[in-house]
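Reply to dn_fold:

You asked what the input looked like. This is it:
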Amino acid sequence: MRFADNCKWVTITSEAYEQGNEVSKKDTGRIAKMLGAPCVNTVVIDSDCAILELYDKNGKKADMFTIGRADDYFGDGNPQPSEKVWKPFISKESSWEQFTQVCGSDEVFAEDGLSKFAPIIGMNSYNITFSAEDADEIDTSCAFLDFKSARSFITMSRDGKTVETQPQKFTINAAFKQIFGEALETYGFKAIKGRYPYLVRVINNEILHIITFYPTDPEYPNDKAISVVSGVATIYRKRISLDKSPKQNHEWLAYASSFYASLFNEPDRRIMSLLYVAGYNSDSTESMVTVLKELAENVKKFVLPVLDKVKDIDSCLDYLDKFKMPRNHKR
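and this is what came back:
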């Protein structure tokens, strides 16, 4: 559960809520009925469109509409919001016209549309796109709940030998910050405070080197995957959007595989594949840790040598040209 100051809405998310599954829908109705309060189920499909379903205090679905490019999913029958249902939720500072304007907008990323929509009904712009993958144990706005019978890191021994160990389960964000943080700390990188896993190194008080990741589509037999990305920014940019997800910063963050490919004429296919999309089994902490450790070692070998050359504005411009990155950013 993630809370926000001066906001009556609370975000509830779970690792069980995969895109398009029915678990979150059922839970939304159940929670609405248990609390006797309206709940909104939000689903984002490949950043193209967002689907919002409102459940009333009795747990019944009251309305549904979309934000973004939904034609590919609903055709000409895109569901439209009901003014009668949604108007009671509109904040004093907003209007129904603003509501419909945002709903009809065609954002590049559906998440941007959701962020603009949230304050219209009194939601927090960051919390509306919050998911379990964004959860961080050090975030004081988050409350973690577990309804299973579980034990945290219990070790049993007999005759001086370990016979059972129950390790604490990592989230991918926490594991990335710990494993990459430790691996890159000696190179000057530090994890910034915030909801997203950005590791940042500052050079001469004007250049920022950034390493992070975002979830991506896995390939069998793995059920989860991430892509490590990196980039360079300067303090002279109008805005450095580290309050946005790495995926929304795709304009200036390049895959780690691109850094590797820039160093070799005939790169190793396995390393290229790992640095492009790294899969792991979400049910296995060992699988996650093993993949992250291998990624961290390869990032040290193949990404840092490229970043190390970007020390001033001239070398920064050379880097941007080499990786075909825009020099000016709207974000």
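The chain has a mean pLDDT of 87.
Hope that clears it up.
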